[in-house]
Structures are given as C-alpha cells and as structure tokens.
Amino acid sequence: MSLKTLDNSLELLKYFTEKNTAWGVRELAKEMNMSHSIVYRILSTFEKHGFLIQNPDTKKYELGLKFWEYGQLVQEKFRLLDLIHPIMERISEETGESIFLTRLDGMEGVCADIAESSQMIKYAVSVGTRTPLYAGASNKTIMAYLPKEKQEAIIQEGLNPMTDKTIVDADKLVSELAEIREKGWCFSVGEYSESVFALTVPLFNWKKEIIASLAMAGPEYRVNDMDVPEMLKILQRECSEIQNYFDRYRITHI
C-alpha cells in the first residue's frame, strides 16, 4: 500500500460520523471528490478486514465490529487507570509516601500517574516526565525484565550520571539488573534524585512482558533498613491487585 492510498483510506474513514453513519460508493466518491473505483477498492478492503460492513438492503457501508473491538480496548485502558489510582492512593495513605506508576516507552520510563504523599516534605515529579531506564529503582526494575539485547542497546546509548550515585559502570549495572530480576523488586537511594529513596516492583502485561513499575518514593531520612520489608509487603500486596486488572483486561501496554 502506497502512502497516498493509506492517506486516502484514513481520510475516507473520517466521513463516517454520528450524523452520517452509512455511505454508498457513489455518494461518498462525490463527497470526497474522488474516483468511484478508488473509493470502491478502499471500502471493499475495509470490509474484507472487518472494519466496515455492507448493509445487504441498502448496499451502503457502515462501521464494522473491528472498530467496536478497538474502542473497547481504549475504553478499558482508560477505565483501568481509573481503577489503579485508588489503589495507589491507598498505598500512599498507608505508608505516608508518594506512589508512582512508571510505564515503559521505548528506551525510557515515563511517569504515568502519581498518588502524592500528604506529608509536607515529599518527593514529587510531574506526570509525563521521561527518565532513563538505568537510573533509579522505578526504571531499573523495568530494565531488569527487558530482553538482553534491549538492555545492551540502552547501555550502548550511554550511561550518564543523574547524581553521584547513579550506576554508570556497565558490568555493575548488568549484575544489579540480574539481582533485581531474581528478587522481583528494587530499592535505591539517591540514584536519580539526591537524598530520595525508591522501592519498586514490576508490572507485566497479560503476555507476561514488562510494561511498567510501581514505586514508593520519599526523602531518604524517612526510611531505614528495618522499614523496607514492611513497605515491600504492602507494595507487593497492592501490586497483585493491579496485576489482576492487567491480566483480566488483557492489557498490552499503558
């Protein structure tokens, strides 16, 4: 398919609106100022793949079930985020720290949602913030579950320090990633932001591929080694509920 054909095909779909839900070949060709034969080929192709159906009585084309299926996927995705946020709020209230949902996007982590701590002093970033996958617990947890070739590609891009505690030695990073994957969680202090701790667990899509991480983060002075096991228990308990949503709705990405 040429780019011109693709462009025409996508443009054609825009004519199916709430006001005009069905089109005949000739009337649509006239509306679009396009060749009747081209419009017919496009409509037939969409019909073949289930995106359009032809009404047997009127012979006009209408939107097909494929669009309904995709619409359901989008709807469930946004509903899913609505379901996740109360869980994050619950963790924040129980622990007193901010909770972050970080999603995988290429070779970066992107902050997808935040449940902020109610405490005066707290760690805060903005939704949409992009961060390198090698720096900090929320990112390293995602990187740990990526295929080896993707890990190597990230390392080849360069390991630039965010702080003086960022791991920039490739061998040391690979070793730590293997440890994270074996444990199933990660704890770091000051690797991405000075004097900030983060405790993180992974989230997988229904195909068991890594797509995100859930992190608890706050000022370093508010946590010690004795706190970590209890905080981890809370995070893992609530994370299992989120994972159930991912599996139930067959989520592939956030």
UniProtKB/TrEMBL annotation:
Pfam families: HTH_IclR, IclR_C
GO annotation (BP), single: negative regulation of DNA-templated transcription
UniProt superkingdom: Bacteria
Entry keyword set: DNA-binding, Transcription, Transcription regulation
Record domain IclR-ED: where: 66-248
InterPro entries: GAF-like_dom_sf (IPR029016), HTH_MetabolicPath_Reg (IPR050707), Tscrpt_reg_IclR_C (IPR014757), Tscrpt_reg_IclR_N (IPR005471), WH-like_DNA-bd_sf (IPR036388), WH_DNA-bd_sf (IPR036390)
Domain (HTH iclR-type) ranges: 3-65
Record bears the keyword Magnesium: no
GO molecular function, one term: DNA binding
Keyword flag Transcription: yes
Protein name: Transcriptional regulator, IclR family
